[in-house]
Amino acid sequence: MKPTNLAFLRIAKRAERQDDDVLQKTFVDFGSVFTVLSSIDHQVIFGRRGTGKTHLLSVVRQARRTAGEIAIQLDMRNLGSTGGIYADSSIPLTQRATRLLIDVLAAIHSNLYEQAVEHDALVNLGTTGSALDEFFDAHSAVKVVGRTTVEATASAENASSAESKLGFMAAPATQSFSGELSVSGSEKEAVSAKKTTTGQEVPRVNFGSVGSALRKIVGTLPKGKLWILIDEWSEVPLDLQPYLADLLRRAVLPTKGITVKIAAIEQRSRLLIPETAVGNVGLELGADLSAAINLDDYMVFDNDEDKAVAFFMALVLKHVQAALESEGIVSPKDDSELLSQGFTQSNAFVEAVRACEGVPRDAIHILHHAAQRAGDQTISVSDVRTAARQWYQASKDAAVSAHDEAKSLLLWIVDKVIKERQTKAFLLEAGTRDPLIDFLYDERVLHLLRKGMSAKDDPGQRFNVYGIDYGCYVDLINTAKAPKGMLDFGDGHHESLVSVPKTDFRSIRRCVLNLPDFYMRGTTR
Q1: Rounded CA separation 242/433 (Å)
Q2: If you average pLDDT over residues 47-68, what whole number do you get?
Q3: What are phi and psi of 102, to 5 degrees?
Q4: Other Cβ atoms closer than 10 A to 249
Q5: CA-to-CA distance for 504 and 452, rounded, in angstroms?
Q6: Which residues have C-beta within 8 Å of that of residue 486, sequence separation ≥ 6?
Q7: CB 331 within 8 A of CB 7
């Protein structure tokens, strides 16, 4: 097998399976995202699965530790050991939320202790240890909720007795007098009480105590800095997320020296519960947190082909170099060597970039399947297309097929957009929230290509451009129904297909997908 194909097969598909040094070597910055994320502002990083959130957080963690600061990274998938208690609807929400908060604080405590031991040359464990103990006590308080019964008994006993004897004796020679008196008594009194408590132990979190303990901990750390990087936020049940966010807002974010970064999937996140009566519960973007970074806004082929190709070229090259160097095999030195050693022509690599739709993990999987197919040969356009079809069927199509309503909507969109209009994208009015659209977007079957497009004849409306995944139409390529452009701005008489959408079009009504038409067909709901 060719060395480059061997490297494609050995690239780890998930960042958490890579060593830190490999993650550092293979990281490629884009749009100065790393620079923005390195600020001390609290931030949320949005991005669908596979866009590199974990990789990015891991590199930030390494950078802060290199700078002599303490940084911990929490994976919310590995939190707790209570066997699904967070999602158990039979348990009251308050109990589930409190259990989640305690588990998060326990994870922070555990990570801080490990960091203190690991960096004993920088951290005075004698000083930090007492603050860590206080932090542990603050988040592990337990109270009993239930009935309390007090039983009391009392008893008293008194007893006394007296006895006296007196005698006189006379004799001719002598006289004698004798007497005896004895008194005895006893007194006994006993009081006893018994308290019986029946109920359930319920953990509780005192935000004030937690915040106070955290301030003491940070004061003992190098440079007075602590970075808390929370990964896989969206794995927390939606109804619990605002309560975890509220813990961060009240006890963590106000602490000077602490910086919090959260990686989440936008469609599966709920950071705030608006409450006008008692105040908001959770975190408010733009107020409590800086404006979110959205990785889905980068690397999309249709937004800027040159930038997308350059990013993925750098990404793939670094992964190939890391994989081959670990095996002692000479690796490509630059882009041109990678193309000549790994692909039949540059178009094959460009096709792989187009097929992954801006998702790095999808690109790695597609190259993995293409390398398997190519074997001892360089990868061709045909290999990429076959690999893209295999990856789509194995991952995305399987997930969508398990959701009947979403599958029906996707087939309807493919018919309306690709087969009827011969385009690969459509428009939805900005602000439209549809659970099926969100599901397809989350599963990387639909891709958000552009936000906030405006129409010249209707400046009050804004539209978002969604593209259909490459895997949905790869079988139609080189056929009469293959997409010939991105959007159709024709008026019904003169067709006008455009490759890259621009703002302020004369008319875009022809491209707008009318979702009510789908629901009126009676195929769902």
Answers
A1: 20
A2: 91
A3: -65, -40
A4: 24
A5: 10
A6: 302, 423, 424, 425, 449, 465, 467, 497, 498, 499, 500, 501
A7: yes
What is the per-residue burial (b if ≥16 Cβ within 10 Å, else e) of 427-442? bbeeeeeeebbebbbb
Rounded to the nearest 10 degrees, the angle between the axes of helix 360-374 and helix 3-10 is: 140
Token pair for 436? 């099926």
Check residue 172 and report its DSSP letter.
S
Please give the Cα distance from 107 to 244 (Å, whole number).
Answer: 13
Report d(CA 385, CA 471) in Å as an integer: 9
414 to 236, 409, 426, 442, 520: CA distances (angstroms): 33, 9, 10, 17, 18
Mean pLDDT of all residues in the chain? Answer: 81
Q: How far is 365 from 458, CA to CA, in rounded Å? A: 42
Residue 188 three-state SS: strand
pLDDT in tens, 365-379: 999 999 999 999 999
Query: What are the structure tokens assigned to 139, written together?
Result: 């988040």
Contact present, 85 and 96 (Cβ < 8 Å) = yes
The model carries a pTM of: 0.80
Yes or no: say if 468 and 425 are a contact pair by the CB < 8 Å rule: yes
Q: Are strands 258-264 and 226-231 parallel, antiparallel or unpaired?
A: parallel
Query: Residue 492: beta bridge partners?
Result: none
Q: Backbone phi, then psi, for 130, in 5-degree steps? A: -65, -35
Does residue 406 sit in helix, strand or coil? helix
Quickly count helices (H) and strands (E) in the chain.
Answer: 19, 14
262 vs 291: CA distance, rounded Å: 12
Residue range 426-485, pLDDT digits in tens: 889 888 889 999 999 989 999 988 888 776 666 678 888 898 999 988 988 877 777 877
Residue 209, CA distances (Å) to 83, 138, 154, 205, 299 in order = 28, 5, 42, 8, 44
Please check whether residue 269 is in contact with residue 235, taking contact to mean a CB–CB distance below 8 angstroms: no
Instruction: Give the count of alpha carbons within 13 A of 207, CB side only.
Output: 14
* Cβ neighbours of 324 (radius 10 Å): 18
Whole-angstrom Cα distance, residue 430 to residue 452?
A: 7
Element (H, E) at 463: strand 458-468
User: CA torsion sign, 496 to 501 to 506 to 510?
Assistant: positive
Beta pairing class for 142-170 and 258-264: unpaired
pLDDT of residue 523: 47
Identify residue 201 by its one-letter amino acid code. Answer: E
Q: Please give the Cα distance from 207 to 182 (Å, whole number).
A: 72
Question: 163 forms bridges with which residues in the sheet?
Answer: 182
DSSP 281-349: EE--BTTTBPPPEEGGGSS-TTT-HHHHHHHHHHHHHHHHHHHHHTTT-----SHHHHHHHHBSSHHHH
